[in-house]
Predict the structure.
Amino acid sequence: MSDDAIAKKVLSTVGQIGLETGKEILKEGGKIGETIISGQELLGNIKPMTEEEYKFKAEEEGKKSDKEMSDLRQNISSGRNVEGEIEEVRRQREQEEKEKEERILEEVARQREIEAMELASLETPGNQKRSAAKMQGVKGKKSAPDPAAMSATAEFKGKVD
Protein backbone atom coordinates (compact mmCIF):
# COMPACT_ATOMS: atom_id res chain seq x y z
CA MET A 1 0.00 0.00 0.00
CA SER A 2 1.12 3.45 -0.65
CA ASP A 3 1.50 6.22 1.87
CA ASP A 4 -1.58 8.04 0.49
CA ALA A 5 -3.78 4.98 0.96
CA ILE A 6 -2.58 4.51 4.55
CA ALA A 7 -3.21 8.17 5.36
CA LYS A 8 -6.74 8.01 3.86
CA LYS A 9 -7.53 4.85 5.80
CA VAL A 10 -6.27 6.41 9.09
CA LEU A 11 -8.31 9.57 8.49
CA SER A 12 -11.48 7.60 7.70
CA THR A 13 -11.01 5.50 10.86
CA VAL A 14 -10.48 8.63 12.98
CA GLY A 15 -13.61 10.11 11.41
CA GLN A 16 -15.63 7.02 12.32
CA ILE A 17 -14.34 7.15 15.90
CA GLY A 18 -15.28 10.84 16.11
CA LEU A 19 -18.77 10.12 14.74
CA GLU A 20 -19.33 7.32 17.29
CA THR A 21 -18.06 9.52 20.13
CA GLY A 22 -20.39 12.34 19.06
CA LYS A 23 -23.38 9.98 19.08
CA GLU A 24 -22.47 8.76 22.59
CA ILE A 25 -22.13 12.35 23.81
CA LEU A 26 -25.58 13.19 22.45
CA LYS A 27 -27.09 10.16 24.20
CA GLU A 28 -25.47 11.06 27.55
CA GLY A 29 -26.43 14.72 27.14
CA GLY A 30 -30.03 13.66 26.63
CA LYS A 31 -29.92 11.60 29.81
CA ILE A 32 -28.54 14.59 31.71
CA GLY A 33 -31.28 16.81 30.28
CA GLU A 34 -33.93 14.35 31.45
CA THR A 35 -32.64 14.42 35.04
CA ILE A 36 -32.68 18.20 35.37
CA ILE A 37 -35.41 19.41 37.74
CA SER A 38 -37.20 22.55 36.69
CA GLY A 39 -38.07 25.32 39.10
CA GLN A 40 -41.76 24.48 38.84
CA GLU A 41 -41.10 20.87 39.80
CA LEU A 42 -38.78 21.90 42.62
CA LEU A 43 -40.96 24.58 44.22
CA GLY A 44 -44.29 22.98 43.44
CA ASN A 45 -47.39 25.00 44.17
CA ILE A 46 -45.94 28.26 45.45
CA LYS A 47 -48.17 31.15 44.57
CA PRO A 48 -47.07 34.78 44.25
CA MET A 49 -47.82 37.20 47.10
CA THR A 50 -50.83 39.39 46.82
CA GLU A 51 -50.57 43.15 47.22
CA GLU A 52 -51.98 42.95 50.77
CA GLU A 53 -49.49 40.27 51.81
CA TYR A 54 -46.65 42.32 50.35
CA LYS A 55 -47.71 45.45 52.29
CA PHE A 56 -48.08 43.43 55.52
CA LYS A 57 -44.61 41.91 55.08
CA ALA A 58 -43.09 45.35 54.39
CA GLU A 59 -44.71 46.76 57.56
CA GLU A 60 -43.31 43.89 59.66
CA GLU A 61 -39.82 44.47 58.27
CA GLY A 62 -40.13 48.21 58.96
CA LYS A 63 -41.22 47.61 62.56
CA LYS A 64 -38.39 45.16 63.09
CA SER A 65 -35.74 47.55 61.73
CA ASP A 66 -37.18 50.46 63.79
CA LYS A 67 -36.99 48.34 66.94
CA GLU A 68 -33.37 47.38 66.24
CA MET A 69 -32.44 51.02 65.60
CA SER A 70 -34.08 52.16 68.84
CA ASP A 71 -32.23 49.45 70.77
CA LEU A 72 -28.93 50.55 69.23
CA ARG A 73 -29.60 54.22 70.00
CA GLN A 74 -30.47 53.35 73.59
CA ASN A 75 -27.24 51.37 74.03
CA ILE A 76 -25.18 54.19 72.53
CA SER A 77 -26.84 56.92 74.60
CA SER A 78 -26.56 55.03 77.88
CA GLY A 79 -22.89 54.19 77.22
CA ARG A 80 -20.77 51.51 78.77
CA ASN A 81 -18.88 51.68 82.00
CA VAL A 82 -15.54 50.82 80.46
CA GLU A 83 -13.51 51.77 83.52
CA GLY A 84 -15.66 49.58 85.74
CA GLU A 85 -15.25 46.67 83.34
CA ILE A 86 -11.47 47.16 83.29
CA GLU A 87 -11.36 47.20 87.10
CA GLU A 88 -13.42 44.02 87.23
CA VAL A 89 -11.02 42.28 84.84
CA ARG A 90 -8.05 43.45 86.95
CA ARG A 91 -9.63 42.11 90.14
CA GLN A 92 -10.30 38.78 88.48
CA ARG A 93 -6.67 38.52 87.30
CA GLU A 94 -5.33 39.42 90.74
CA GLN A 95 -7.59 36.85 92.37
CA GLU A 96 -6.45 34.17 89.89
CA GLU A 97 -2.79 35.05 90.59
CA LYS A 98 -3.36 34.80 94.36
CA GLU A 99 -5.06 31.44 93.99
CA LYS A 100 -2.18 30.21 91.83
CA GLU A 101 0.41 31.37 94.38
CA GLU A 102 -1.53 29.67 97.19
CA ARG A 103 -1.65 26.41 95.23
CA ILE A 104 2.11 26.60 94.63
CA LEU A 105 2.80 27.29 98.32
CA GLU A 106 0.57 24.39 99.35
CA GLU A 107 2.41 22.11 96.93
CA VAL A 108 5.81 23.19 98.32
CA ALA A 109 4.61 22.63 101.92
CA ARG A 110 3.31 19.18 100.99
CA GLN A 111 6.65 18.31 99.31
CA ARG A 112 8.53 19.42 102.45
CA GLU A 113 6.32 17.25 104.64
CA ILE A 114 6.93 14.27 102.38
CA GLU A 115 10.71 14.88 102.49
CA ALA A 116 10.63 15.19 106.29
CA MET A 117 8.74 11.90 106.57
CA GLU A 118 11.23 10.20 104.26
CA LEU A 119 14.14 11.57 106.27
CA ALA A 120 12.56 10.35 109.52
CA SER A 121 12.00 6.91 108.06
CA LEU A 122 15.67 6.71 107.05
CA GLU A 123 16.79 7.30 110.61
CA THR A 124 15.57 4.02 112.00
CA PRO A 125 17.44 2.36 114.92
CA GLY A 126 19.45 0.14 112.56
CA ASN A 127 20.69 3.10 110.58
CA GLN A 128 21.56 5.42 113.46
CA LYS A 129 25.23 4.47 113.51
CA ARG A 130 25.49 4.93 109.80
CA SER A 131 23.73 8.31 109.82
CA ALA A 132 25.86 9.46 112.81
CA ALA A 133 29.00 8.48 110.92
CA LYS A 134 27.84 10.46 107.90
CA MET A 135 27.14 13.50 110.02
CA GLN A 136 30.61 13.40 111.63
CA GLY A 137 32.37 12.89 108.35
CA VAL A 138 33.82 9.50 109.37
CA LYS A 139 34.37 7.40 106.33
CA GLY A 140 34.79 3.69 106.16
CA LYS A 141 38.04 2.00 105.21
CA LYS A 142 38.77 2.33 101.53
CA SER A 143 40.22 -0.52 99.58
CA ALA A 144 42.80 0.15 96.92
CA PRO A 145 41.88 -0.88 93.39
CA ASP A 146 43.51 -3.95 91.92
CA PRO A 147 46.55 -2.78 89.87
CA ALA A 148 45.92 -5.54 87.33
CA ALA A 149 42.45 -4.16 86.64
CA MET A 150 43.77 -0.66 86.04
CA SER A 151 44.75 0.47 82.59
CA ALA A 152 48.31 1.22 81.59
CA THR A 153 47.67 4.95 81.29
CA ALA A 154 49.14 5.75 84.69
CA GLU A 155 46.00 6.71 86.49
CA PHE A 156 47.80 6.65 89.85
CA LYS A 157 50.30 9.17 91.01
CA GLY A 158 53.48 7.47 91.99
CA LYS A 159 54.58 3.90 91.66
CA VAL A 160 52.16 0.99 91.62
CA ASP A 161 53.18 -2.22 93.46
Observations:
- The two ends are 108 Å apart (CA to CA).
- The chain has a mean pLDDT of 81.
- Residues 61 and 67 are 10 Å apart (CA to CA).
